[in-house]
User: Which sequence fits this backbone?
């Protein structure tokens, strides 16, 4: 259950805030609805590095074990849900750390995509690549206007692994998913709604959280065990595939990311991001 030695429990209105010192995520449980909001808080862009991934895993475990009625994933940044994987973890990587990094990403995906509680993403900002992976691992997505979401990996000269595709395919028709992935397409909020990559649009983060809560509330009269087992049956083949191939998936990733051409591409991409940030 909760790691009580490190845990601080604060009450904000009807919410209980559970967070540990120096954590990159917070978990707030609404006492009225019993729904937990899991917030990513790693400035500047919620880049998924090893530490954020570990905190995400721990927070998902907490929510699973504290009998929350659902999980809403969101961001403390007002314009970015998550910039995806922290490219600094993959560029000129440390040998041991990059293994732990990828393994932690696998852990987060298995826990979120396979979660027994209903899950929803309040996408309150841009959500490229790994950000889109997190959002599409949830069962429902509500997004704010004027942001973008998608799997842009091919634009960076990298390849989304099969399990990224599984999440994408659980939301989009195959033809749209395949074309978008091949193009590395980023969808605007409006486009994402049109193709079904998101379920609803909200004007504020609060409204997005309300809509996510309403989705989770729609299961109020459904037997929780029957609901969880049904969801897990839908997702079992995808989850099992990664479980069976975890080691090979890690080795494939390490081989791929260490290719000189991939390293060169990641270096150039980082430079372009930094140049853009300066201007
Ligand atoms: C046979 C087949 C085999 C298959 C094998 C498979 C093998 C596996 C291959 C590997 C797969 C790996 C999968 C990767 C998925 C990913 O998630 S990759 C990451 C992709 N992310 C992006 O492309 C997003 C890039 N960022 C942006 O577009 C923008 O930053 C933003 C829209 C998110 C935010 O814009 P803005 O608010 O204007 O902020 P910026 O000024 O751009 O950025 C601020 C600051 O953050 C740095 N930064 C941004 N994103 C990242 C990132 N993802 N990683 C690290 N750092 C990032 C940016 O450089 C700025 O830094 P400075 O302030 O200049 O230091």
Assistant:
């Amino acid at each position: 259950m909760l790691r009580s030695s490190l845990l601080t429990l604060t009450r904000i209105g009807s919410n209980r805030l559970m967070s540990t010192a120096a954590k990159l995520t917070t978990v707030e449980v609404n006492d009225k609805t019993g729904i937990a909001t899991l917030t990513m808080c790693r400035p500047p862009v919620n880049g998924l590095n090893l530490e954020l991934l570990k905190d995400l895993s721990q927070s998902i475990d907490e929510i699973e074990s504290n009998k929350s009625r659902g999980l809403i994933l969101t961001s403390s940044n007002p314009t970015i849900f998550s910039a995806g994987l922290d490219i600094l973890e993959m560029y000129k990587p440390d040998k041991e750390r990059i293994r732990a990094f990828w393994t932690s990403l696998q852990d987060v995906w298995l826990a979120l995509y396979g979660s027994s509680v209903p899950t929803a993403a309040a996408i309150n900002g841009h959500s490229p690549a790994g950000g889109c992976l997190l959002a599409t691992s949830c069962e429902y997505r509500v997004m704010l206007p004027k942001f973008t979401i998608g799997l842009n990996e091919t634009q960076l000269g990298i390849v989304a692994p099969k399990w990224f595709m599984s999440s994408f395919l659980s939301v989009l028709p195959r033809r749209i998913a395949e074309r978008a992935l091949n193009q590395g397409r980023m969808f605007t909020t409006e486009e994402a709604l049109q193709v079904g990559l998101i379920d609803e649009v909200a004007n504020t983060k609060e409204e997005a959280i309300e809509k996510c809560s309403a989705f989770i509330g729609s299961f109020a009269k459904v037997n929780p065990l029957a609901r969880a087992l049904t969801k897990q049956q839908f997702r079992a083949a995808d989850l099992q595939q990664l479980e069976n191939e975890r080691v090979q998936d890690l080795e494939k990733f390490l081989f791929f990311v260490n290719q000189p051409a991939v390293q060169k591409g990641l270096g150039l991409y980082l430079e372009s991001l930094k140049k853009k940030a300066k201007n």
